[in-house]
Task: inverse folding
């Protein structure tokens, strides 16, 4: 299985008002992030507004990311649906496009029981020959992954990673204790990445790294070197961007930040709203302070 580790920015999906994906903007962002030292790229995570795009738009985002990356770092593409059949079709199509891994996400309109949640993720992993990262974000999802389900899925030969956005760091330690080496844990921006690295995490998949890639890579390197005092000094500084994300709409915040940095990523997909002038100014201040 491929070794995924380090900083994987959750990419934005730059979309025109008419729904066209701005592939040239996405391509430039991917290239610049790779030059900044990130270890991989994740299109169609939460920052990528997967819930607001149709399948053609999602495929265009994944294809543009893979073409811009040119094999320099792994691309782990987000797969999400309320339907297992549709999720499996997405996963197969992204593997054909050249994705190196799948980030599997479940959307539920009606609540699901553990058996149905497990079968959804298992079907995706059965359908592809590339590693699968299972993703849970209980703040926004109706159906969470329980520790029992995670442990059973960890036995699948292609499910080797989990990205957990629960905000409960103790839960991450429970996953590590329960599953051992069978599954490796990526932090989300809802956690403190340095703290997750301290307890045994392998990196983080998160939106803030789109805006502060060099600083994120520096933090990862300090954690890997076990230079915890220095890592925590840097982590405290960088946490200000996480606080801004928690305060404002996620996609609006990152797209505004990217616009400030010269990327014409557009507004978040309606009915989401762009940041107000005051909110944008607050994000700009944080970015200036972080250099």
Result:
């Amino acid at each position: 299985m491929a070794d995924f580790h380090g900083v994987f920015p959750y990419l934005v999906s730059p979309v025109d008002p008419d729904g066209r994906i701005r592939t040239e903007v996405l391509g430039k962002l991917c290239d610049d992030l790779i030059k900044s030292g990130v270890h991989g790229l994740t299109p169609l995570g939460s920052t990528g507004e997967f819930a607001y795009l149709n399948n053609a738009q999602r495929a265009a985002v994944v294809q543009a990311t893979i073409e811009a990356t040119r094999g320099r770092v792994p691309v782990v593409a987000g797969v999400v649906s309320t339907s297992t059949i549709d999720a499996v079709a997405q996963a197969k199509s992204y593997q054909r496009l050249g994705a190196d891994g799948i980030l599997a996400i479940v959307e539920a309109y009606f609540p699901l029981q553990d058996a149905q949640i497990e079968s959804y993720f298992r079907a995706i992993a059965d359908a592809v020959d590339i590693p699968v990262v299972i993703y849970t974000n209980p703040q926004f999802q109706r159906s969470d992954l329980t520790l029992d389900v995670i442990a059973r899925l960890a036995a699948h030969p292609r499910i080797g990673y989990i990205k957990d956005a629960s905000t409960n760091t103790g839960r991450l330690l429970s996953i590590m204790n329960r599953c051992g080496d069978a599954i490796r844990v990526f932090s989300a921006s809802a956690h403190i990445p340095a703290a997750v690295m301290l307890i045994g995490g392998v990196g983080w998949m998160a939106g803030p790294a789109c805006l502060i890639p060099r600083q994120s890579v520096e933090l990862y390197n300090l954690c890997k070197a076990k230079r915890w005092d220095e890592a925590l000094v840097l982590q405290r500084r960088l946490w200000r961007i996480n606080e801004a994300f928690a305060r404002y709409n996620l996609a609006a915040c990152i797209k505004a930040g990217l616009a400030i940095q010269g990327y014409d990523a557009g507004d978040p997909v309606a009915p989401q709203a762009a940041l107000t002038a005051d909110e944008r100014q607050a994000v700009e201040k944080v970015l200036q302070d972080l250099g």
Summary: The radius of gyration is 18 Å.
